[in-house]
Each structure stands twice: as C-alpha cells, then as structure tokens.
C-alpha cells in the first residue's frame, strides 16, 4: 500500500470504538496524532513527518525501532511455531532465554519466571513473596509495603502497592494489608541535582516507622523502583537503597526492585542492581526485555526463594501461578534477538558513555521559563514545570503537543516532562532533542 493510500485509510477510520489507555480520548479524537511507521530513532506520522523518539516508545524500545535481527527472529518463529503452552510443557527457547537472562544478573538471582507485561511481573513478584514466606513457615507475613508516588503497573496488586493517586482513587479499597513509605522527592534540598541527590538517605528510615507500627512478623516484602520513572523520574538519594536493603535484612523482609523501566541498559549497566550495587530478593522486568516488539515480562528470584518451593512429591505443582502467555515462543524469539542486539552493539552499557552529554544537554534547559527542577541518571531525564494555577498538567500537555508538532516525542506525567530515548541515540540526536525542547519551552505559556 502506498503512503498516500495508507494516509487516506487512516483519515477515514472511525476513531470512536477504541477506548485509548492513559489518554485524553476526546482531545485526541478531535485532532489525532497517528504513527504509521518506525525505524531506529524515528517514528513516521500519517502525514509523512519524522518524529525523533525521546521516550523509547513507552520506556521500552531500548534497541530502537524495527531492528533487523529482532524482526527476522519474530518472522522466523511465527512461521515455525506460533504458540506452545508453558503449563506442563516447554519449548527450547524458553529455557535458553531464562539461562541467558540469569547470566546477566548477579548471583544469587538465578531463576526466572516469565510473564506477559510489567504489571503481570509485579503481581507475580508479590505473589511469590507471599507464598515464599508461607513456605518457610512465616505465614503471618502477609503485609506488602510500597512507596508514595511509586508506579508498579495497573493490576490490583500493582496499584495497591503503587502510590500515584490518580491510578488508585477510582478503584475502591484494592488489596488489604498494604502500607506505603514516604517518597524521596525533596526539591527544597535537591533541586537541579546532577545524578543522585546528596540529601535524603534518611527517608529509608521511614520503613522502620512502618515496621514498628505493624511489627516485622506481619510484613512479607517491600517493593520500590530503584529510579521511580512514571511518576516523573525521582532519583534515589545516595545510600538510600543500601539502607533499605539493610533494614529488610534485619527484619526478615524481602526486597523487590521494580526494574521494568531501569532494566536492560537504561542506566548504563544491564540493570539498576548493577548500577547501585544493591541485590534485592526479586526483580521485576518487562519493556526492554524484547525492546517493546512483543509483550513480555520476567521476574528474577534468588535460589533460596526458588528452592523453598522445591519439596514434596515431584508430581505436584509447586506454585499455582502463571499466564497463558508465559514464555510465549514468539516473545522468547524476540527477547533472544534483542539480547543479541544489545550484546553486539554494546547497548547494555552504552548509556554510560553518553550519559555526561545527556546530562549536560538536559541541564542546559535550566534557564527556560517555568522550569523548577531537572533530574537525570543514565539515559533518563525529567524537566519539571511550574503548574498553571488552577490548571494542573495543562502546561506540560501543551509542551507535549508542541513537541510533537516540532518533531520530537516526549512524555508527560503531571507537569513533568520525562525523557528516556532508545539506547542507540547519537550525540547529535541528543543535541537535536534538547534544542527542540528548548524551543518548545520558550514558546509555550
């Protein structure tokens, strides 16, 4: 189909049937923004324009778009075997992928449970944590601890431990037995920090307050994002994560890192586990696992957790949990090819080489109107804008629309612009991204 024919088809489609996720549906359908193609660092719009991807899709296309090795692997797999059940059956690529993934993680994170998304990975990790405590005779440990402003997907488990108000307020009581530590955002002391803030390690002590309130014998696990992404890029203060690990160890509580965003090279290391030198008991991943090509997630757990379930008669199921699409053959093929692409191009560590250029470009926006904070780590960045009085989110949304018109894709959450480009971005493209973003910030009200 020609480009003109494709554009004509898009323009005549009825947009009403699709209830779009996390979207202002009425605004969008009055003035649609349609992507019809993608390659490497760019999307192609329905009117033929190129848009530089400043967000890796939704934090997921870490290797860029339509990379040949991944495309070919998916095409070959769908022709060979489209689907295979993971319940009581297997296929070779699932075991190959699990072995390759576990080799990327520090010991003792040696085992992998496959899911279909980040939300499913979070619910899986929470269920494994609860089941593990029961398996070791600690069945009173049923409480789960999240953090204010945390984002852990949109399942009931994820929104229960999550701490973003709009993701929670409409949906009732959610899971019981959940509490939240305070967030670490401290603009009064840390505004415009470059990298990890100097102040705020003491916020980890809020976990002790919660432990004293509920008693440690009731708490199964604590879940945090090493870098909080969807809430607007909150960087952990220096020594904060180390202190959380210490407190959990002291009280027999499992620590879960949600690395759906930080996993697979985002910080210049394979995982945030490596960047911060803190090893949790469980790690949730998705997004960059397949570079966004096919939905897939994975949960890493320690050998001790896995072994706690491996007892009793061998014909019995050890964990009553799983998904129809766990270890889907096409997803496994995509993930294996994605790992090959990361390895061949050094993408799991490339962010470390360009992080300083990224940081300098991002912080060059400090003098733009309405900018009240800038945050960065690895290839993640945020520009926080002063909200318009009485109209929260409107200023950032105006920036988003203007940016799209000017040929860059950014993401907004509240009045925060979040950026997380594919790991293949060049220095010239970083300069283009921030140059155009400067124009946007200088022209919006």
UniProtKB/TrEMBL annotation:
Q: Which domain of life is it from?
A: Bacteria
The protein's required cofactor(s) are namely: pyridoxal 5'-phosphate
Asked if Transferase is a keyword of the record, the answer is: yes
The protein's matches in Pfam families, at most eight in alphabetical order, are given as: Aminotran_3
Q: Which GO terms describe its biological process?
A: biotin biosynthetic process
InterPro entries per record:
Aminotrans_3 (IPR005814), Aminotrans_3_PPA_site (IPR049704), PyrdxlP-dep_Trfase (IPR015424), PyrdxlP-dep_Trfase_major (IPR015421), PyrdxlP-dep_Trfase_small (IPR015422)
Is Transmembrane helix tagged as a keyword? no
- GO molecular function terms attached to this record: adenosylmethionine-8-amino-7-oxononanoate transaminase activity; pyridoxal phosphate binding
UniProt keywords (A-Z) are: Aminotransferase, Pyridoxal phosphate, Pyruvate, Transferase
**UniProt xrefs under CDD domains:** OAT_like
Query: Family assignment?
Result: Belongs to the class-III pyridoxal-phosphate-dependent aminotransferase family.
PANTHER family recorded? ADENOSYLMETHIONINE-8-AMINO-7-OXONONANOATE AMINOTRANSFERASE, BETA-ALANINE--PYRUVATE AMINOTRANSFERASE
Protein name, entry field: Beta-alanine--pyruvate transaminase
Q: Which organism is the protein's source?
A: Roseibium hamelinense
């Amino acid at each position: 189909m020609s480009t003109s024919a494709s554009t004509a088809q898009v323009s005549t489609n009825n947009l009403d049937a699709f209830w779009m996720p996390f979207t202002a549906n009425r605004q969008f359908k009055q003035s649609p923004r349609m992507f019809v193609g993608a390659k490497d660092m760019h999307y192609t719009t329905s009117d033929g324009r190129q848009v530089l991807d400043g967000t890796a899709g939704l934090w997921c296309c870490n290797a860029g778009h339509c990379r040949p090795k991944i495309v070919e692997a998916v095409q070959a797999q769908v022709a060979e075997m489209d689907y295979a059940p993971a319940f009581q059956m297997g296929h070779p690529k699932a075991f190959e992928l699990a072995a390759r993934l576990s080799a990327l993680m520090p010991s003792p994170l040696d085992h992998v449970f496959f899911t279909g998304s980040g939300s499913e990975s979070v619910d899986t990790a929470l269920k494994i944590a609860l089941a593990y405590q029961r398996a070791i005779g600690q069945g009173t440990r049923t409480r789960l601890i999240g953090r204010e402003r945390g984002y852990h997907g949109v399942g009931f488990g994820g929104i229960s431990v999550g701490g973003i108000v709009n993701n929670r307020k409409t949906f009732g009581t959610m899971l019981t037995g959940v509490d939240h530590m305070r967030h670490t955002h401290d603009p009064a002391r840390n505004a415009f920090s470059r990298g990890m803030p100097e102040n705020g390690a003491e916020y980890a002590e809020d976990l002790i307050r919660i432990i004293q309130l509920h008693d440690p014998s009731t708490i199964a696990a604590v879940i945090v994002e090493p870098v909080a992404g969807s809430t607007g890029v909150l960087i952990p203060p220096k020594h904060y994560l180390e202190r959380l690990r210490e407190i959990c160890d002291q009280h027999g509580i499992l620590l879960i890192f949600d690395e759906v965003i930080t996993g697979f090279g985002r910080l210049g290391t394979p995982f945030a586990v490596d960047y911060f030198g803190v090893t949790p008991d469980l790690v949730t991943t998705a997004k960059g696992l397949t570079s966004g090509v096919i939905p897939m997630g994975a949960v890493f757990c320690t050998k001790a957790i896995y072994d706690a379930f491996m007892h009793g008669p061998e014909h019995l199921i050890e964990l009553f949990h799983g998904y129809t699409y766990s270890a889907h053959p096409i997803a496994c093929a995509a993930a294996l090819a994605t790992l090959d692409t990361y390895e061949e191009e050094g993408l799991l560590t490339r962010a470390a080489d360009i992080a300083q250029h990224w940081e300098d470009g991002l912080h060059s926006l400090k003098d733009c109107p309405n900018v009240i904070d800038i945050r960065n780590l690895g290839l993640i960045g945020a520009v926080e804008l002063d909200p318009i009085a009485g109209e929260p989110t409107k200023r950032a949304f105006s920036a988003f629309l203007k940016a799209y018109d000017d040929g860059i894709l950014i993401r907004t959450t509240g009045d925060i612009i979040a950026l997380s480009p594919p790991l293949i971005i060049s220095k010239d493209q970083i300069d283009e991204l921030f140059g155009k973003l400067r124009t946007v910030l200088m022209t919006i009200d």
